[in-house]
Predict the 3D structure of the following.
Amino acid sequence: MSKQDTHFFNVFSLVIGLLVAIAIVLFVFARIVASHTQEAQVLTEPDYSQNVAARIAGPVREAVAGQDNSALAIKVETAAGAGSATPAAMPKNGTELFEQTCSVCHGQGIAGAPKAGDKAAWAPRIAEGKATLYEHALNGFQGKTGVMPPKGGRTDIPDDLVKQAVDHMVQMAQ
Ligand code: HEC
């Protein structure tokens, strides 16, 4: 190796060594700065705090008299528009009630409900007599195939209208 080469290697090693040292210093400096700012910043972000609050909140919410409890209100989803808080409109007659409520189960025969218009499914039920059908539709009924909830879940509906809906379904099966 010539003298010139040796000199080059010495200088070259020195420069590389210096660069590595600078890199390490920068790395350590960045870590120190980050430990003071980065995590602290995340903790103060509103999104983050909201998520934490939601996660540690108890599963039960209480409405307190005299306070604003609107955040606790259960949002009712209606056919008119998901998310709107207006309750389902009052149907005008049995047919409308059937279409609005009863058909959810009875339209396609979901959850063991006798399908509207299915003569075979309805014949033995019609044979029980209208009084029984009314009674079961109004007060609910646990039969062999499933559970018929009182008034199909619409307990706000007057009895007469429910009876009309029963009449409508009986008519469909005749
Ligand atoms: C959540 C689903 C569901 C809704 C909504 C529903 N039903 Fe039913 N209904 C059932 C099921 C299930 C049965 C069958 C129960 C059985 O026989 O085991 C049934 C049975 C009936 C019967 C026959 C009862 C009998 O004695 O055989 C009538 C009548 C009836 N429903 C009327 C209605 C009317 C009227 C509405 C709307 C106001 C309605 N249902 C809404 C599930 C539903």
In short: The chain has a mean pLDDT of 85.
